[in-house]
């Protein structure tokens, strides 16, 4: 979903039900919030966290959506001017599984998932 604002192009990308807990994803997303897209992609590329790969895919999708919106609106867009204005991680559905416990019992396991949303906007020149 993208729109042309007064300040420029704004585009977003959402990745749903990523198989990683929101707590671990937020550790990475907090590092890139408010940064320029090129700086954020460089940080994600060299991060050791597994969440960085998933967030990088979502960020690349948001950039592609911005380029497509600019092309559709017949505007020029420089990817170097894009800034991450909104980056949030929400909790997705929990997968409920069971694991064996002592004396023939079973203990529940919650495998958490995440929804990642990234919004990029063209910075004011």
UniProtKB/TrEMBL annotation:
It comes from the Bacteria. The keyword Ribonucleoprotein applies. One of its GO terms (biological process) is translation. One of its GO terms (molecular function) is rRNA binding. Gene3D superfamilies: Ribosomal protein L22/L17 (3.90.470.10). InterPro entries: Ribosomal_uL22 (IPR001063), Ribosomal_uL22_bac/chlpt-type (IPR005727), Ribosomal_uL22_bac/org-type (IPR047867), Ribosomal_uL22_sf (IPR036394). The keyword RNA-binding applies. GO terms for cellular component: cytosolic large ribosomal subunit. It holds the Pfam family Ribosomal_L22. Keywords: Ribonucleoprotein, Ribosomal protein, RNA-binding, rRNA-binding. Coiled coil: none annotated. This protein binds specifically to 23S rRNA; its binding is stimulated by other ribosomal proteins, e.g., L4, L17, and L20. It is important during the early stages of 50S assembly. It makes multiple contacts with different domains of the 23S rRNA in the assembled 50S subunit and ribosome. Belongs to the universal ribosomal protein uL22 family. Part of the 50S ribosomal subunit. This is Large ribosomal subunit protein uL22. It comes from Gemmatimonas aurantiaca (strain DSM 14586 / JCM 11422 / NBRC 100505 / T-27). The lineage of its organism: Bacteria, Pseudomonadati, Gemmatimonadota, Gemmatimonadia, Gemmatimonadales. The gene is rplV.
